[in-house]
């Protein structure tokens, strides 16, 4: 169980416990992905020292133009590698929401947040098809080495769409390999985001990130769920 201080922290910032979820009350049918989905991997992609030695988090935050005062979400936060570094970058006037579907991981992260006295971090549990983020709240949403594990990507992205502030963007770091091998073809990634109503605004091959960096913004309109056509994994541009 999360200790009382951590529980208060998880609800206080961003008003996350009382904010409306992005479409969570709607009952709709979304297409399944036309591709395998990776099983949940380790919450520790590699050690934090190893990741820092190649400048991973700093590189991603620089690419994403993370500045003091921003409000950001770390989806699939795990043990909090990005969460704690985003906390430092956005500063005391900024906010970080750490989200995961793994309750045990969130409990460990809550203890870390409390131990390190990171007062600008809140914690929230999501679900496989819904990140459960408050609407119109985030300048940046991060999904680092985890997108390929989302079991219901079209529903997840569709429900994520309203959580972005005007000008807000979604950051994906992943590896160009099959989705059942903990990666995703960047063309397939772009197709799935496009089907859910996003536009690609930046793409970089980045060996220091053990993969690539992609950045998306919400398009002018979010499609109706019944209009989403799953992208074919053997022809990513066909969606």
Task: Name the features.
239 residues, globular, 7 helices, alpha/beta, seven-stranded mixed beta sheet
Task: Provide a brief overview of the structure.
A seven-stranded mixed beta sheet has the order 3-2-1-4-5-7-6, sandwiched between helices. Helix 6 links the parallel strand 4 and strand 5 (164-174). It has helices at residues 4-12, 48-53, 56-63, 81-90, 103-115, 153-160, 186-195, and strands spanning 71-75, 95-100, 121-125, 138-144, 164-174, 198-206, 211-218.
Q: What is the approximate shape?
A: globular
The main β sheet shows up as: 7 strands, mixed
- Termini Cα gap: 43 Å
Regions with little confidence, pLDDT below 50 for 5+ residues: 1-25
Helix content: 25-40%
Taking all Cα atoms into account, the compactness measure Rg is: 17 Å
In DSSP terms (H or I, runs of 4 or more residues), the helix count works out at 7
Backbone structural class: alpha/beta
List the secondary-structure elements in sequence, H or E: HHHEHEHEEHEHEE
Strand content: 15-25%
| Largest beta sheet: strand ordering | 3-2-1-4-5-7-6
Could you explain the architecture of this structure?
- There is one protein chain.
- With 239 residues, the chain is an alpha/beta fold.
- 27% of the residues lie in helices and 21% in strands.
- It is built from seven helices and seven strands, in the order αααβαβαββαβαββ.
- It has helices spanning 4-12, 48-53, 56-63, 81-90, 103-115, 153-160, 186-195, and strands at residues 71-75, 95-100, 121-125, 138-144, 164-174, 198-206, 211-218.
- It has a seven-stranded mixed sheet with strand order 3-2-1-4-5-7-6, sandwiched between helices.
- α1 (4-12) packs across α5.
- The chain is globular and about 45 Å long.
